[in-house]
Amino acid sequence: MRVSSHALVLNATYEPIGVVSGRRALLLVLTAKATVLETGEHVWHSASATHVVPAVVRLTRFVKIPYRSTVPLTRRGVFLRDGGRCVYCDAPATSLDHVVPRSRGGAHVWENVVSCCRRCNHLKGDRTVAEMGWRLRRPPRAPSGPAWRILGSGRSDPRWIPYLDGLGIDGSIFGRFFSATEQTATA
User: Fold this and answer.
1) Using CA atoms, how far apart are residues 78 and 84, in angstroms rounded to an integer?
2) How many CA atoms lie within 13 A of 128 on its CB side?
3) Could you tell me the sign of the dihedral formed by the alpha carbons of 5, 71, 170, 62, in that order?
4) What is the pTM of this model?
5) What are the tens digits of pLDDT across the range 16-32?
6) What is the rounded distance in angstroms from the CA atom of residue 10 to the CA atom of residue 25?
7) How far is Cα of residue 2 from the mean position of the Cα atoms in its chain?
8) Both ends of the chain: CA-CA distance in Å?
9) Closest CA to 16 of 162, 121, 185
10) Distance (Å, rounded) from C-alpha 79 to C-alpha 82?
11) CA dist., res. 18 & res. 68, Å (int)
12) For 2-6, 90-94, 121-125, which range has the lowest pLDDT when averaged over its residues?
């Protein structure tokens, strides 16, 4: 599993807020706006000092985060939700497909967009799943919860797992996400 130079930011109450660059996390620590909970592997050098880039930081003051009821639909989010696999044949997913085609009035919403392999997307074309005689391995649904603020960033680090346990995220989702994004990047 690769380790990024990004840091998980926790609120003063240890609630995950988001992911920032290693540089931003280091600036938060140096300006006393955050404290380091986990150190990373990267080192930043300045003229007078050497600093280890933090992997997890906690803000010293509570920041009110506006509640967002919906998660924005993104390509990365769809691949993550579907585990990087085609919902029709379980092959590695390389593209997105609308279950009800846009040409037939299908909307571009979480419940109608799935990840699929190039072959299935080409075979299906502008037909519905019922017309093809296919079945979805699992019905698409919109993700919910604060975990998507973290997972939607596309970055993860195994050192973050203990801080994300309360959100229902386990370590296996990080491995699934990396394998899905690496496969789509090569396609």
Assistant:
1) 8
2) 7
3) positive
4) 0.62
5) 888 899 999 999 999 99
6) 11
7) 15
8) 20
9) 162
10) 5
11) 14
12) 2-6
